[in-house]
Amino acid sequence: MLLLLLAPLNAVAGAAVHFQVTDLNGVATEVPSGLPQGRALLLLGFRHNDHTALDAWRDGLGLSSRDSDWFEVPVIGVGNPMIRGVILRGMRNGVTATADRARFAPAFADAAAIALQLGIDPSEPAAVVIDRTGRVLAHASGAFEPGKAAALMQVLRH
């Protein structure tokens, strides 16, 4: 079953998309205003086990650390700075190349709030195309599927 929603659900929910990510090199980016391109793809995971699905999306989409129009964003609801440090050290140990670390940008924030802003379900990993105004242009949830990927890439690179 192919499901790709092209409507900006965040507008329906009435929420403005705004949160911060910090890549594994320590560079903070405001989403959406600080995105390096006019449009960006966010691969979002809300649970620890989502990393496998996000890997499949990244690999299936053919994304490279040389591409600056995407981020892998694990959303981690941990407020304690000490625990954040432990989590970040573990992530940095797993992602050693500087270019790869620039694409891996966790958000330490309320997962439900981010999901609501983006109009997605936090019980599944998601791939979201967003513009610099915070408009969700397209999204797909769940496991990687080539049809979903092609539709997302068409919107991203339009």
Written description of the protein model:
The chain has 158 residues and is an alpha/beta fold. It has a single domain (9-156), classed as Glutaredoxin. 35% of the residues lie in helices and 23% in strands. It is built from 6 helices and 7 strands. It has helices at 9-13, 50-61, 81-94, 98-103, 111-118, 146-156, and strands at residues 19-22, 28-31, 39-45, 70-76, 107-108, 126-131, 136-141. It has a 5-stranded mixed sheet, with helices on both faces. Strands 1-2 form a two-stranded antiparallel ribbon. Strand 6 (126-131) and strand 7 form a beta hairpin. It starts with 8 loop residues before the first helix and ends with a helix. Mean pLDDT is 88; it is low at 1-14.
- Beta-strand segment tally: 7
What is the H/E order? HEEEHEHHEHEEH
Beta content: 15-25%
**Largest sheet, if any?**
5 strands, mixed
Overall pLDDT score:
88
Structural class: alpha/beta
The gross shape turns out to be globular
CATH superfamily: Glutaredoxin
